[in-house]
Q: What sequence folds into this?
């Protein structure tokens, strides 16, 4: 186990403390709510994530999109094909390397993303409704620390 805080490590329980369970439950409920608000546009949570990632990065390869969208390369490939068919994205060969295909949003994809963002903001508002600004900032920082801790974990 990685122990960065020696004082806390001395009192660490020998059994799970329920944090992972709460995060899992939160993830489950959050995903359900996001699925519900995206349903009118026939967009999945994974597709929404991919559209958001492409919007942030401009263009990505299929492998980069899979990694940043938290799906397997195989799932990303199927998702990309469907999103291209629907006109949300375009794919084109990279100028620097013919085998790499860059993916980017179309105007239709950008419009769809803005509509979906409006719905997802409502979910986030409900999620964070009990927090004040300081608590939100602390939570955001703590979640990043937790991600960093798990990213460096080797079993």
A:
């Amino acid at each position: 186990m990685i122990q960065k805080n020696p004082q806390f490590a001395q009192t660490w329980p020998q059994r799970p403390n329920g944090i992972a369970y709460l995060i899992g439950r939160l993830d489950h409920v959050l995903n359900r709510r996001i699925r519900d608000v995206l349903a009118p546009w026939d967009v999945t949570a994974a597709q929404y994530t991919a559209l958001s990632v492409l919007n942030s990065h401009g263009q990505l390869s299929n492998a980069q999109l899979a990694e940043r969208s938290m799906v397997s390369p195989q799932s990303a490939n199927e998702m990309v094909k469907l999103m291209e068919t629907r006109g949300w994205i375009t794919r084109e060969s990279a100028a620097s390397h013919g085998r790499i295909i860059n993916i980017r949003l179309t105007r239709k994809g950008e419009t769809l993303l803005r509509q979906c963002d409006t719905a997802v903001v409502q979910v986030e508002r409900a999620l964070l409704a009990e927090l004040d600004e300081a608590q939100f900032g602390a939570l955001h920082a703590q979640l990043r620390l937790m991600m960093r801790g798990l990213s460096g974990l080797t079993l």
In short: The helical segments are 6-10, 19-38, 45-57, 62-69, 73-85, 107-128, 133-151.
